[in-house]
Specification:
protein biosynthesis, 42% helix, 3 domains, cytoplasm, L-seryl-tRNA(Sec) selenium transferase activity, Aspartate Aminotransferase, domain 1, Aspartate Aminotransferase, domain 2
């Protein structure tokens, strides 16, 4: 293959090619950027020839052949450059908080508020009435106070950051007492014990994996104890021979000791009581605050149904210390997050009808009848328009996802689809590679579409994707 190296044109010759000019016009890319891409692709081809890895079995001994090969690669690279990495996906898995697919999706009013704030200047750190500099902490603190009943609140970029800030600011070089059964690992291999170590707090484990008693905490508290930490294990469930200490008992215990803080990491952060619908056992934030917790923290993009954020609520004195800590600036969120979170929290204050406009709540609380109606509509349109598919409706279960309510199974109705010549794996891949991408489940050699997480507006795209599949 090395004999072909002499036929590779130099970059300055590629710049004079008609193909170069065509790409400049077609993709509106700068000449400098296009030149750099030409150089990269030229280097790549040269390396392939040196390694005898050129894909074409019959390369020509002329420069025009290589110019065409180079520009074919250049155009693919420029086309990829002009496309965004983040793409719209239709989630037909039925998992409401799908971590791989971005967890909670925002509702229309939330999106409208984000767009309005992002496309204009805003009072992010400006007091309009006074004409003075303001604090971004003030933007939604009042809303969090109202929905949680807390004295004060602040927002950081996610709940892991909230845990870290609280431990660093309030328990550095001090002891933090935690039940051994609550030393959880969350997504991405982040462990509570590791976060605590990074924060400078000293971990004091009490109890065992399955059983921790109040006396375990009592014996562990010393003059060096700064905090009792309770971690809500929302991403797994220990069943059988178990025992744990309730929050109210830990509140009573910490009140017997001056300068000991009781902090509960709630993880998911529930503002709506799903238990009244028989769904899960997640504690409502307001109830934990009412019990007397000094601090709580929770995620914004899980069961709350908002953007990625870590929300800290609790006693004013402690929140003020957190706001003044240097890490507060490092972990702060931007105007778009504040806008999405503000619109989400407003919905909780307006009442249940407004809450049901939050996609996460709406999807979790959907009835089987609503889901079946959407699945039936899909089945009818698919069978009528394309005889190469078979589709049946089957009873199944959806998941909440996002590391929350692991034991909860939401009854649903799925469309089980098979193709006359494609396997379920092949069909799922074709759907995943369509535009927009459609992510499904597979079971018993069928592709399952769970319409709990599919909107009416997305039905037409799914039907079109099935119709466009060519064997």
């Amino acid at each position: 293959m090395k004999q072909y190296l002499r036929y590779l044109p130099p970059v300055h010759e590629l710049q004079k090619s008609v193909f170069f000019e065509q790409l400049l016009q077609k993709y509106n890319v700068s000449s400098e950027r296009l030149t750099n891409i030409c150089q990269q692709e030229l280097n790549g081809i040269r390396e392939q020839l040196l390694q005898d890895q050129w894909h074409d079995e019959n390369p020509d001994l002329n420069k025009e052949y290589w110019i065409k090969q180079i520009f074919a690669k250049v155009e693919r690279a420029v086309e990829q450059l002009s496309q965004y990495y983040l793409k719209t996906i239709i989630n037909a898995t039925g998992t409401v908080l799908h971590t791989n697919l971005g967890r909670a999706r925002l509702g229309e009013k939330q999106i409208e508020h984000v767009v309005k704030v992002a496309s204009n200047y805003s009072n992010l750190e400006y007091k309009i009435n006074e004409g003075k500099r303001g604090s971004r902490h003030d933007i939604i603190e009042g809303l969090i106070q109202q929905v949680t009943g807390a004295e004060a609140a602040m927002v950081v970029n996610n709940n892991a950051a909230a845990v870290y800030l609280i431990l660093r600011a309030l328990a550095k070089d001090k002891e933090v007492v935690v039940s051994r059964g609550q030393l959880v690992e969350i997504g991405g291999s982040f462990r509570i014990s590791a976060i605590m170590e990074e924060s400078g707090a000293k971990l004091v484990e009490v109890g065992t994996t399955n059983k921790t008693h109040l006396y375990d905490y009592e014996k562990a508290i010393t003059e060096e104890t700064a905090m009792i930490l309770k971690v809500h294990t929302s991403n797994f469930k220990v069943i059988g021979f178990t025992e744990s200490v309730e929050s109210e008992e830990l509140v009573e215990l910490k009140e017997k000791h001056d300068n000991v803080i009781f902090y509960e990491d709630l993880g998911s952060g529930v503002l709506y009581d799903f238990q009244k619908h028989g769904i899960g056992e997640e504690p409502v934030v307001r109830d934990v605050i009412k019990l007397g917790a000094d601090l709580v923290s929770f995620s914004g993009d899980k069961l709350l149904g908002g953007p990625q954020a870590g929300i800290i609520a609790g006693k004013r004195e402690l929140i003020q210390k957190l706001k003044k800590h240097q890490l507060a600036r490092v972990l702060r969120v931007d105007k778009m997050t504040f806008a999405a979170l503000e619109a989400t929290l407003k919905a909780y204050l307006l009442g249940e009808q407004a809450m049901m406009e939050i996609p996460t709540l709406r999807d979790i609380l959907q009835s089987e009848e609503e889901i079946e109606a959407r699945a039936s509509k899909f089945r009818q349109q698919l069978i009528e328009q394309d005889p190469q598919y078979r589709c049946t409706l089957e009873k199944d279960f959806s998941q909440v996802g996002g590391g929350t309510m692991p034991e909860v199974k939401l009854p649903t109705v799925v469309a089980a689809v098979t193709h006359s010549s494609l396997t379920s794996e092949e069909l799922a891949i074709r759907l995943r590679l369509s535009t927009p991408s459609i992510v499904t489940r597979q079971k018993d050699e069928k592709v399952y579409l769970d319409f709990r997480t599919v909107t009416d507006d997305e039905l037409a795209f799914i039907i079109a994707a099935f119709q466009n599949i060519q064997c």
